[in-house]
Amino acid sequence: MATINGKDIRKLVVACDAGMGSSVMLASTLRKQLGKTGVTVEHTPVNSIPADADVVVCHSGLAARARSVAPDKPIVPFQIFLGDPAVTKVVKAIQQGTDLNV
Amino acid sequence: MSELLDPRAIRLAEKAADRDDAIRRCGQALVDIGATEPGYIDTMLAREQSISTYVGEGVAIPHGTLAGKDLVKRDALAVLRFPEGVDWGGETVTVCVAIAAQGDGHVDLLAALAEILLDEDQARELREATEPETVIRLLGTIQEETES
Q1: What is the ipTM of this complex?
Q2: Chain B: residue whose CA lies nearest to A46
Q3: Which of A19, A21, A81, B117 fits as disulfide partner to A45, beta carbons 3.0 to 4.6 Å?
């Protein structure tokens, strides 16, 4: 368990297996929700999570792989592609500059 | 838009025995329009076995694995509707938006789909669409709104 403050998140990465489906969709909705905050939202295959990612959001089924690829990054696993409470928490932490436990 | 969403790949009165059958039909639509090699279909089945592509509101977005990307010839979507519904690991899927993509050409369309699914009325309209024009209008109109 680690804590990251929403203010310190500059780049959020949505990781997926192929990076062509659900991660694209989630990234587009997050980009819209976070548009005003200036946070960069990218979607990538889980095997190529960029080094400058501040937080990684991925399906719970891929969380273990994401942790092995990016052991030093906060990983937020989710179950539902649209409207998952775990993802909503990340958005709130960024918008309000509050702490996020991951 | 028309290149991504070929009317020949909008099939709104499909029937499938189960989830795998539905995915094969989706994959076949992508193969039929020349978007992928036939081998792509197996990677779609593999992806679904590892993590479901159900995204909510009776919609799934089947697509291949990372390895399957090599079998994509051009970015394209297929929209298949199963009026009788297909059991999708406990959820009922009525509409599949199948994806073949190497690049990011389809991102706007998926963004539009996300918007549709977050709006109950539009999600229902998509589930009940019987004409390809309705699907094109839903995905197309929202896309313009997102861009503005």
Answers
A1: 0.75
A2: B66
A3: A19
Number of domains in chain B: 1
Task: Give the residue carrying structure tokens 């079998």.
Answer: B71
- A58 catalytic, yes or no? no
Beta strands in chain B (DSSP E): 10-11, 54-56, 59-60, 76-88, 91-100
Residue A1 has pLDDT above 70, yes or no: no
List the CATH number of the domain containing A25: 3.40.50.2300
State the burial class of residue B17 (Cβ atoms within 10 Å of its Cβ: 0-12, 13-18, 19+).
exposed
> What whole-number distance in Å separates Cα of residue B38 and Cα of residue B126?
28
In a domain? residue B2 = no
Closest residue to B114, CB basis, from A18, A28, A61? A28
- Direct distance between the N- and C-terminal alpha carbons of chain A, in angstroms, rounded to an integer: 6
Hey, is B8 helix, strand or coil?
helix
Tell whether B96 is covered by a domain. Answer: yes
What's the domain range around A27? 3-101
Domain that holds residue B127: 7-147
Distances (CA, A) of A43 to A18, A55, B67: 10, 12, 17
- Predicted TM-score (pTM) of the model is 0.85
**pLDDT value for B2:** 57
Confidence (pLDDT) at B141: 58
Residues of B with CB under 8 A from a CB of A: 47, 50-51, 53-56, 61-66, 68-69, 99, 101, 104, 106-107, 110-111, 113-115, 117-118, 146
